[in-house]
Predict the 3D structure of the following.
Amino acid sequence: MKIELLPSTIENGRAVNRQHLSCFVLDDKIAIDAGCLPLGASRVQIQNIRDVVLTHAHIDHIAGLPLFIDDLFSELKSPVKVHSAEEVNAVLQKHIFNWEVYPDFSELENENGPVLEYVDFEPGASFAIGDFSIRGIPVNHKVPSYGFVVEKEKKTLALTGDTAEMNGFWSEVNGCETLEALLVECAFPNELSELAEVSHHLTPNRLAAELDRFEVDCPVLAINLKPAYRDDTERQIKDLGIENLSVMEIGTPYRF
Ligand SMILES: [Zn+2]
């Protein structure tokens, strides 16, 4: 399977290696989070993606979703399905697609039918999208938030989304014999550990302690680095000297 972290941030007219918004694309057809979905996706990806899986409802993870559906409104032949936990979809309905912030697309149809469908997943239970099997695992963020275990053809990826120190997630991934890679957040540099604590994020030192609990020998890619501190955070991650650990490159497809 292929996973790509879409570029989100433009400086001087060019996409740069910093990340304000979060969106991963699986096999060019499933989005995990939608922060920069309509901004960073290729034409092929935009034409293919009709399933969006959300970790949580923070704006850097959902910002692109209203515009993505808006762009596709007249051409959709089937609705964009938003797969998330019930409480996360409820936030979208109440605070985003409410006619005040943006149209309630779940009430609208084009000539082919509905354009937005909320699909609640059951935490811990697998659900299928095409040939992928996906499981949402609760993580430890300030709001309800889920990491994912993603399987296809006996290969598995795990992704934490935004989180601080976790419990259940590690027992889930440690038992996974087919795990090919772990994508794990590392938002803040070590000197902002207090901010990381109150906002439920990790720093390189906190990540290192978490990885002591990770028992699978596979690549670990750090994600969700706050752009304002990216250089420091990246350097501190490298300085940990942990084998297999690197920062996920933006706009580069990884194949497993
Ligand atoms: Zn968040």
